[in-house]
Amino acid sequence: MARMRIYTRKGDTGTTGLLFGGDRISKADLRTDAYGTTDEAVSALGLARAAIGSQTDRTKARLAALVVRLQRELFVVGAELATHTDRRERLTDGVSRVTTEMVTALETEIDSLEELVDQPKEFVIPGESATGAALDLARTTVRRAERRAVALADAGELPDSQVVPYLNRLADLLFVAARAADGGFRPVRT
């Protein structure tokens, strides 16, 4: 069996291949920038997950499960962003296309965490905890991915898509999750 190499040399010309058809586009293209930044967000969430660790604390376990789910969902975002407009019919809801239900699920998660967490009354300086800081880094990366997706949508290259609302809600969710990681929980009333 022949060994598969990680390098192909195809990108040496400054181009990369898209999903569903493999069209070659510039690595500086709006589309490449959008899905590349989304990939950065997946890695930033990986840093957050590593900071959470494998502790059995209920809050940390909840955050760890949430982060893994969000990493997987960002692969859906990336797949949609990496698909040329002419091939959007090949996308599958929830697998390679972001759905309204995915956006709504983020809103539900935000509402659930907001019930538990006291929101800050002033600007937050990240760094209260390693997990919170990593989640804040992921949040700012998601905001950049959102800006890149907006540029792509403004160029008419993301028609009829839920990517921008999804990234917008995701950044909001990561803000609340970071506050939870920092220990801003309300006392439980009995």
Structure characterization notes:
It is a single chain. With about 190 residues, this protein is mainly alpha-helical. The protein has 5 helices and 2 strands. It has helices at about 30-50, 60-80, 100-115, 130-155, 165-180, and strands at about 15, 25. It has a two-stranded antiparallel sheet with strand order 1-2. Strand 1 (about 15) and strand 2 (about 25) form a beta hairpin. Helix 2 (about 60-80) packs antiparallel against helix 5 (about 165-180). The protein starts with 14 loop residues before the first strand and ends in a 9-residue tail after the last helix. Residues about 185-190 have low confidence and may be disordered.
Quick description:
This protein is mainly alpha-helical and 190 residues long. The chain is built from five helices and two strands, in the order E-E-H-H-H-H-H.
Radius of gyration: 18 Å
Terminal residue distance: 64 Å
Shape summary: globular
Low-confidence stretches: 186-190
What's the rounded overall pLDDT mean? Answer: 89
Q: Spatial order of the strands in the main sheet?
A: 1-2
Largest sheet: 2 strands, antiparallel
**Count of individual beta strands:** 2
Count up the helices: 5
List keywords for this structure.
190 residues; mainly alpha; two-stranded antiparallel ribbon; 2 strands; 57% helix; disordered C terminus
What is the topology?
Layout: E1 15-17, E2 24-26, H1 30-52, H2 58-81, H3 100-116, H4 130-154, H5 163-181
Antiparallel strand pairs: 1-2
